[in-house]
Amino acid sequence: MLTLASQFDSRHAPLLPLDRWLRRMVVCGLLIVLLFPLGRGQIPWLGWAPLWLVGMPLAAWWALHRFRLPWPRRGAWTGRRRRRLGGQARRRAPMPAHWASHGARAT
């Protein structure tokens, strides 16, 4: 279940050594992808390198923090659904039978 950062409980604080290690892996992966052409390509025995060098460490880091979402912007969520300004949709009148047969091709 996804929770907002404001609902974070201090009992579930991430392990600091693992948090530091994952941050370092993300930074190292980013540097490899940015500085070395091999880091941006496809490796036959590994697959797409940026996924394994940046994407997976980022996903592990996010999972370590229990999938918390970032703080919402002030006023971004009001708790109410926005109403549409237009009126309710109306049904169309049924199409006359001679119009339906006019569009059909003769075989």
UniProtKB/TrEMBL annotation:
The keyword Transmembrane helix applies. This is Uncharacterized protein. The chain crosses the membrane at residues 21-39, 45-64. Residues 82-93 have a biased composition (Basic residues). Residues 82-107 are annotated as: Disordered. Keywords: Membrane, Transmembrane, Transmembrane helix.
